[in-house]
Specification:
Elements (H helix, E strand, L loop, with lengths): L2 H15 L8 E3 L22 E4 L12 E5 L6 E9 L3 H17 L15 E14 L3 E13 L7 E10 L4 H23 L11 E8 L1
Parallel strand pairs: 1-4, 2-5
Antiparallel strand pairs: 3-4, 5-6, 6-7, 7-8
Helix pairs in contact: 2-3
Amino acid sequence: MNLFRVLISVVAAGFVAGCSTTQPSQYYTLMPPSIKQTDAVAAKGKSPGYAISVQHVALPEQVDRPQIVITDPDSTQVTPLNSSLWASPLSDEVRNALADALSRRLGVLEISPSAAPESLPIWRITLTIQRFESLYGRRAVLDATWRLTPLNQRGKKARLCRAEMQVAVADGMSAMVAGHREALHAFADVIADQIQGRNTTEAPTGFQMKGCTTL
């Protein structure tokens, strides 16, 4: 019996027990539990002179739901876990976590273009996720395409890229969510380097760039 079937058996047992006892739901977030002093944006030196705007994130329908969805690595079966829920809609969790990571890495504000001064240079970031897979006790997988669009930045060109990140995880839902957070932060590192005009010299372990094109 593989790990997926063991997990589903546990969930089923919990459901049967729930006939007599209500099982409490657990809520998870992709936002970091705390901001380390070394990660905090230091308001020192010259301002970068631009802002970022992270758009709504598109997700595959099978994972775009309140429950965390577990994927069976040995079949096409996926199972939503009714007792393991996202703290907010998953698209919001991903968008907010990416915006937070980029804002801290770049030392800039994340704002809506409609609320920005008319002449403020902005990088608009659009993320479309092709795969957001949770393989219990094995790995978290994030395969996504992103587009960087410069606004009010003469001479800058838009860029479209795609990459995949796989993070090995231990048993437990907290470990699984932490794996997705690590994968998302790897994307944030690469996107931040692109915005700053730097080439990523060393990709994180498990990160595979599938290609980029200038638009």
